[in-house]
Specification:
Belongs to the aminoglycoside phosphotransferase family. About 40% of the residues lie in helices and about 20% in strands. The protein is of the alpha+beta class and about 475 residues long. The chain folds into two domains: about 15-220, no CATH class; about 225-480, Aminoglycoside phosphotransferase (APH), C-terminal lobe (Aminoglycoside 3'-phosphotransferase, Chain: A, domain 2). The strands form four sheets. Strands 6-7-12-13-10-9-8 form a seven-stranded antiparallel beta sheet. The chain is globular. It binds adenosine-5'-diphosphate (ADP) and the ligand O=P(O)(O)O[C@H]1O[C@H](CO)[C@@H](O[C@H]2O[C@H](CO)[C@@H](O)[C@H](O)[C@H]2O)[C@H](O)[C@H]1O.
């Protein structure tokens, strides 16, 4: 994506230096753990002159010999109000025409408002194209404020109408989140938020040929919805707070977990059904291919490769590596022609929201650490099922792992409760999925287990790099998953 359509900021060494210091501290920066070898400004587009000024930047960041691209909205003000101080990048002395306090403009409603107006008016500014979904209107004049949700990008909430996701790490071509959401919106799928518009970098504007690069996605804001992670945690809290049933055996059963007030199983079943319906619509929109045995061997080889890499970095994974490898080998040997199709790719409870009418699936971008080709590649739909099963395991154990004051024997008692909760909700999800026409997870147990372990390995690296205090969550569940 490098090259410059920019307007003269690319050579500003002080801006580059400030950005190189600021970038690694951002939650959404994907290259944590490796030093930045080089940073330059690929494109710079002035979106607003005057006070405050707004510049759209695409940064070319080289790490480990490879270049990645990140999007930054750069605000510039002579005086920085207190509320914007936490988002300051640094002070510029005007070497390339910018002087004042530079900051992350995603946090400044005065500078996010124009984005909506540009999409409504389908503006073209330098290499930036603002697009509106044909046949839809966009309300303007709303301020965008960053969502507080835990996420890999930055989403701006405009009133109670829209959510605009600014993709931080950019990949060539159309972003899968836009591609899939548009296809599902057009197919009339009721389990995704409607797409209202998007922003893209024109082909050639990035000097790299190919199609336009998606920069942002504007969707319907699900205002009364709650995300699946919060709902599941509420249920786990409720179950953990129940006194042990009189004369209960040491290990509570999934039915005991169901008797607690906040049982989640009915919702888990509905979520399974919604997942199967989305898989059906994805298959219709993008097609299905029966993959040859060689593709399964390649799949297993990829799982081994990730395991090797993560075990090298995280020693706590190593004792489980042998058992995990045996499960991956089973997949490699299974040799049948399985139907592969477009899937979600990074499916978990934080990617689904319960509205008043049902479950909605979000974020079809795939796993942030995968290459664009991997994210788009057809996969078996049970990979998503396994992702959600992992998420039930996460929700079940999150409270235990996050309570540092918990005595080890109390943690062991809660671990038994966590298992019962996870089992109950896993079963309900799988039953809902199969009843709605998805491939029955019980009939593909080895494949589901391999996908789950592969996801757990991915999570161990993800947590080690991004949220080290969460690392015990996937490690703890691995202890019984790896067997
Ligand atoms: N259309 C929407 N309406 C309301 N909340 C949303 C919407 N899309 C996403 N969210 C919230 O934002 C969170 C992060 O969104 P997501 O698309 O997963 O971002 P990222 O890819 O950056 O992680 C979700 O978990 C959800 O809580
Ligand atoms: O939602 P993202 O696309 O940013 O996905 C990444 O971050 C997720 C965490 O925010 C991470 O999910 C892991 O933690 C969840 C709880 O926060 C849990 O429900 C998931 O099961 C677990 O994988 C996801 O793996 C990562 O790609």
């Amino acid at each position: 994506m490098p090259g410059g359509s920019g307007q003269g900021r690319g050579s500003d060494p002080s801006l580059v230096r400030l950005l190189a210091g600021w970038l690694p501290r951002q939650r959404w920066f994907g290259g944590k753990g490796s030093p930045i070898e080089d940073l330059s400004i690929g494109t710079a587009t002035e979106l607003r002159t005057g006070e405050p000024g707004l510049h759209h930047l695409v940064l070319d960041v080289r790490q480990n010999g490879a270049t990645e691209h990140y999007q930054v909205l750069l605000g510039v003000r002579r005086d920085l109000p207190e509320r914007l101080r936490p988002h300051e990048i640094g002070v510029l002395a005007g070497t390339a025409g910018i002087s004042g306090h530079a900051y992350d403009a995603a946090h400044d409603p005065e500078l996010t408002r124009p984005l909506l107006a540009h999409m409504a008016g389908e503006s073209v500014i330098g290499p930036l194209r603002f697009r509106r979904t044909p046949g839809t209107g966009i309300r303007t004049g709303l301020d965008g404020t960053p969502s507080t949700a835990e996420q890999s990008n930055t989403s701006l909430v405009f009133g109670d109408a829209y959510m605009c996701k600014l993709f931080r790490k950019l990949a060539p071509g159309v972003n899968p989140d836009l591609e899939v959401n548009l296809a599902l919106t057009r197919a009339g799928c009721e389990h995704v938020p409607a797409v209202h518009g998007w922003i893209e970098l024109a082909p050639g504007g990035d000097g790299a040929g190919g199609g336009p690069v998606t920069l942002a996605l504007l969707s319907q804001f699900l205002r009364s919805a709650t995300d699946g992670w919060q709902l599941a945690l509420t249920s786990v809290r409720d179950w953990f707070a129940q006194p042990a049933p009189g004369g209960a055996p040491a290990a509570p059963t999934p039915d005991d977990a169901g008797a607690a007030g906040g049982d989640f199983a009915a919702e888990a079943g509905r979520l399974g059904a919604a997942t199967a319906q989305v898989h059906r619509d994805l298959a219709r929109a993008f097609g299905v291919t029966a993959v040859p045995a060689a593709r399964l061997r390649a799949l297993a080889a990829g799982m081994h490769e990730q395991l090797d890499a993560v075990a090298a970095d995280v020693p706590q994974l190593r004792p489980h590596a042998g058992a995990i490898r045996a499960v991956f080998d089973e997949v490699a040997a299974s040799g049948e022609g399985l139907p592969f199709q477009r899937v979600h790719g990074d499916y978990h409870l934080g990617q689904v929201m319960r509205t008043d009418t049902g479950w909605v699936l979000l974020d079809f971008e795939g796993e942030p650490a995968r290459t664009p080709a991997e994210r788009r590649a057809p996969a078996h739909p049970l990979r998503d099922v396994a992702g959600m099963l992992r998420s039930f395991e996460y929700a079940a154990r999150f409270l235990i792992a996050s309570d540092v004051s918990l005595a080890p024997d109390a943690a062991d008692v809660l671990e038994l409760r966590a298992r019962a909760w996870a089992r109950r909700n896993r079963d309900a999800f799988c039953a809902g999925y199969a009843a709605a026409g998805g491939p029955d997870p019980a009939a593909h147990a080895a494949l589901v287990r391999a996908f789950e372990l592969d996801k757990a390995v991915y999570e161990i690296r993800y947590e080690a790099r991004n949220r080290p205090s969460w690392l015990p969550v996937p490690l703890r569940s691995l202890e019984h998953l790896a067997g």
